[in-house]
């Protein structure tokens, strides 16, 4: 327990003793749980991303059948049943001969938060699978908007993390692709 959490625990225990009522004690106990558990949950985010990414990579062996929803939309994409944290959308495409899993995070055009999200995902992906598939900078694109991407080539799939400014949409998009070669 951190010093801050220990100090908060002591203060809450003393307050509970002073208050005496079971309702007040229950409310303070809930507050204590929030103070002690929520910070730990936020620390688990990196592990959660890696665990989800490993599940997605494993699902690539079956063309993502076990993480694709049952009904495809008009565009032929299936809603993914595994949604990465804070992603706007995640979907599975299964055209003949290939398959892909794709999540996108949308930000207002050129907001620093978009580039920070890309860097965080790049670092988390490096930590999760970089030792098995050293990252490679992806090829550039032929348009004036900003684009950067890292690619990881595994035996069963390629993983791509990218950020792209789309001025026509007034958006910056951060993407995760897992593609069956």
Tell me what you see in this structure.
- The chain has helices at residues 3-19, 22-43, 45-59, 112-129; strands at 77-79, 89-93, 99-108, 136-137, 147-153, 158-166, 171-180.
- 40% of the residues lie in helices and 25% in strands.
- It is globular, with a radius of gyration of 22 Å.
- It is of the alpha+beta class and 181 residues long.
- The protein has a seven-stranded antiparallel beta sheet with strand order 1-2-3-7-6-5-4, covered by helices on one side.
- A hairpin with a 4-residue loop joins strand 5 and strand 6.
Layout of SSEs?
Elements: H1 3-19, H2 22-43, H3 45-59, E1 77-79, E2 89-93, E3 99-108, H4 112-129, E4 136-137, E5 147-153, E6 158-166, E7 171-180
Antiparallel strand pairs: 1-2, 2-3, 3-7, 4-5, 5-6, 6-7
Descriptive tags:
single chain; 181 residues; alpha+beta; 7-stranded antiparallel β-sheet; 7 strands; 25% strand
Summarize the structure.
With 181 residues, the protein is an alpha+beta fold. It is built from 4 helices and 7 strands, in the order αααβββαββββ.
Run of helices and strands: HHHEEEHEEEE
Q: List how many beta strands DSSP finds.
A: 7
Terminal Cα span: 46 Å
**Portion in beta strands:** 25-35%
The residue-averaged pLDDT reads 77
**Uncertain regions: pLDDT < 50 for 5+ in a row?**
1-16, 21-46
The total of helices stands at 4
């Amino acid at each position: 327990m951190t010093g801050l959490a220990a100090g908060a625990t002591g203060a809450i225990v003393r307050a509970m003793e002073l208050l005496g009522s079971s309702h007040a004690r229950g409310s303070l106990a809930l507050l204590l749980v929030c103070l002690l558990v929520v910070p730990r949950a936020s620390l688990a985010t990196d592990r959660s991303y890696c665990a989800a990414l490993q599940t997605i990579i494993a699902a690539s062996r079956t063309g993502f059948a076990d993480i694709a929803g049952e009904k495809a939309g008009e565009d032929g994409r299936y809603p993914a049943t595994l949604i990465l944290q804070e992603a706007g959308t995640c979907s599975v495409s299964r055209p003949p001969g290939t398959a892909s899993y794709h999540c996108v995070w949308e930000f207002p055009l050129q907001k620093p938060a978009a580039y920070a999200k890309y860097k965080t995902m790049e670092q988390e992906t490096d930590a999760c699978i970089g030792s098995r598939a050293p990252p490679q900078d992806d090829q550039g694109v032929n348009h004036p908007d900003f684009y950067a991407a890292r690619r990881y080539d595994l035996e069963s799939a390629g993983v791509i993390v990218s950020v792209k400014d789309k001025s026509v949409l007034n958006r910056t998009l951060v993407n995760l692709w897992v593609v069956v070669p």
